[in-house]
Amino acid sequence: MTDNFASHPFAAQLTEAGVPLEIWPMLTSHGVGTLGPKLGIHFEELTVERVVATMPVQGNQQVVGILHGGATAALAETLGSFAAAIHTQGRKNPVGVDLNITHHRGASSGVVRGICTPLHLGRSSTSHQIEVFDEAGKRIATARITNQLLDPR
User: Fold this and answer.
1) What stretch or stretches form a coiled coil here (predicted)?
2) Which domains does the chain have, with CATH numbers?
């Protein structure tokens, strides 16, 4: 790691979350935020065409022991927002204005993987689809997010 990256204010957090070094300059204000680390979200791929991350079921379960739908929605929104930020190369601030999610089945153990792909990449908004799978490759949820792209304050 170069000195520039070692001195990044969120170096430890970004490393832990699996964020590639080329994305770090876009994340000097807030890193990956505070919710992602609490949920255990770990990025595997971050490109304009595809954002992939995993999240453990353990620690993100609801009262009957299955993955909490809100945790799945937070994973989806995280992936869609990161995808929108990468699309703008950090020049705009994506703000989620619509998130919908359909839960197809539960997950009670292991990790889930979210795969985010673009539906629309515009100048003022983006829309992405996020598919969430269990370790057996069964789809547990499908989400769609629209982000408004705001100028930095």
Assistant:
1) none
2) 38-150 (3.10.129.10)
Q: Give the N- to C-terminal CA distance of the chain in Å, as an integer.
A: 31
Q: How far is CA 13 from CA 25, 54, 89, 104, 149, in A?
A: 14, 16, 20, 32, 25
Q: Name residue 30's amino acid.
A: H
- Going from the C-alpha of 68 to that of each of 32, 55, 96, 118, 150, the distances in angstroms are 21, 12, 20, 25, 30
**Kind plus residue range of the DSSP H or E element containing 48:** none
- Average pLDDT for residues 11-23, to the nearest whole number? 87
**pTM across the whole model:** 0.91
148 forms beta bridges with 95, 125
Which is the catalytic residue, given 44, 45, 77, 131? 77
Q: Is the pLDDT of residue 7 over 90?
A: no
Q: Is 77 a catalytic residue?
A: yes
